[in-house]
Amino acid sequence: MQNSSGQRFGSTGTLSELPDGQTGDSTVEPQSDPYPKIILSGTDPDLPDDFHNSFARYVNFQPMGGGGNGVLRSCWDSIMGRPVAMKTLSPKLACEKDYRRRFLREARVTAQLQHPNTVPVYDIGLDDQRCLYFTMKRIAGDDLYHISQRLKAGDENAMAEYPLERILDVLIQTSQALAYAHSHGVIHRDVKPENVWVGRFGEVVLLDWGVAKVWGQADDTSEQAHRLVGASEELLQTLTRSGQRPGTPLYMSPEQVLGNRHVDERTDVYSLGVMLYELLTFSEPFRGVNVRATFDQIINDEVVPPSARNSGQIFPQFLEQICLKSLQKDPGNRFQSMLELIAALHQCQRELVDSYED
Fold first, then answer.
1. Over the stretch 1-27, which tens digit does the pLDDT of each residue have?
2. What is the b/e burial string over 320-348, where b = at least 16 CB atoms within 10 angstroms of the residue's CB?
């Protein structure tokens, strides 16, 4: 804030001199750490006992999907005058401390990751049944899985809309969101095409931070893998029948499957590599008859190079090398950061442009 003598009030309320001739005001508060870590004490606390909010502002609810522990609906925010998406914790879990904590962590991690490729969170509160909810931007478009299915089917509109260079751009934007999260100490741990949303105006958003690991969180990777294998008979059914889509298990890294401690950003690099492989070949690198068999392949089998899959797609050899490096069993042999992977994808983009000009 500047007064009439050309001085400016700093964020502490003290006066500071502006350089000669400089005027104006700044709303940017300098920080000692440009990438502060997102930590448990800032994501997990329950709402205060005397918390209240205006849930009545939300009207005209319409189902959007959901499953598991949450329900997703679209609704109208009558105060702000805009459509929003609302995720609500299932009523049967409303009083379960563990589930409340995880739900609040998802909401707050999503809210604290303020990046162009993450979804803005508007509000956290309690609905009329005292169930937790949070609202966020509603995005119109399609997820990357359904886009890849259209490409696989030879949909001419999809092929025109998503040439290889645009697919690379979608992956780069997804990787940018992950690099930003990693700089804040957050590992996504559930990177898959269903969680990458491509909007109608070209925006790319990485969704669903529900199993993200934040700074200071105890390792629970073995619990996640055990739950996927043992807790659901549905997941253990055949994966080869028409329409079956188990999602998460197909994109888990070997260290996730093995339940290794200290899973880091290289596990997201692996999952991004699985997505790239699928977009090049229209098939996952590892897919057994059930989740257990899939996990066995992820741990033990060598990756068939994308060029040997005969998908009919044409892509640069350098892109295949990027894919195979991302899918190395040993995290030490992969790209060591998402920024390294982004640099490689950018180089591939440049090579594509050069090939078009030749």
1. 444 444 333 333 333 333 444 444 445
2. bebbbbbbbbebeebbebbbbbbebbeeb
Q: Give the global pTM.
A: 0.83
Token digits of residue 191: 């990177």
- Residue 68: HSE in the Cβ half-sphere, 13 Å Cα cutoff: 14
The pLDDT tens digits for 176-212 are 999 999 999 999 999 999 999 999 888 999 999 988 9
The CATH homologous superfamily to which domain 141-357 belongs is Transferase(Phosphotransferase) domain 1 (1.10.510.10)
CATH superfamily assigned to domain 41-137: Phosphorylase Kinase; domain 1 (3.30.200.20)
Distances (CA, A) of 134 to 54, 66, 115, 194, 195: 12, 14, 18, 20, 18
Can you tell me which residue has the tokens 């609040």? 104
- Catalytic annotation, residues: 190
Residue 330 has pLDDT above 50, yes or no: yes
